[in-house]
Amino acid sequence: MDQRWFIVALATLILWGVWGVVTRVASSSLGWRETTAIAAVGNMMAAVIFILVSGASLAPRGFPWLLALAAGALGFTGALTFYIALNLNPSSIVIVSTSLYPLVTIAISVILLGETFTLRQAVGAVLAIAALILISAD
């Protein structure tokens, strides 16, 4: 089995971890509106560089293309609500809470895509929810 996925996943973990702290610092000074707008510009800059370097095509190609477009809109909207949440609560709680989004992905994947959900995965989900409760409780 190819193990390169782990290195890429670790890089993602580090990038998103740093992103959470940088976002908190920026939003505490700028506010959620400005942070969202400026972060969107940063996102677009990175996207343009990726498109140019990778040679990815933006030509519309049916329903999958619309799904990819929807994914971008959902990602942006999720970032927007994340920035708002950071202004309302400490980043340690907001980041832990929002990191449970895979539970939504799992539920939708099981219901709509017919993917399986094992007992071990269910126990992991329950433990993740318990961790959230312990971390966010006063």
Structural write-up:
The chain has six helices and no strands. The chain folds into two domains: 85 residues, no CATH class; 39 residues, no CATH class. Helix 1 packs antiparallel against helix 2 and helix 2 runs antiparallel to helix 3. It has 138 residues and is an all-alpha fold. The radius of gyration is 18 Å and the shape is globular.
Number of domain modules: 2
Distance between the termini: 44 Å
Share in helix: over 70%
The string of secondary-structure elements, in order, is HHHHHH
* Largest β sheet strand count, sense and barrel closure: none
Runs with pLDDT <50, length 5+? none
Summed over residues and divided by their number, the pLDDT gives a mean of: 90
* Shape designation: globular
As a whole number of angstroms, the C-alpha radius of gyration is 18 Å
Tell me the fraction of residues in β-strands, as a range.
under 5%
How many E strands? 0
Structural class, please?
Answer: mainly alpha
Compute the number of helices: 6
State the main characteristics.
mainly alpha; 2 domains; 6 helices; 83% helix
Task: Give a quick summary of the entry.
By secondary structure, the protein is mainly alpha-helical. It has 6 helices and no strands.
Topology:
Blueprint: H1 4-30, H2 32-54, H3 63-88, H4 91-98, H5 102-113, H6 119-136
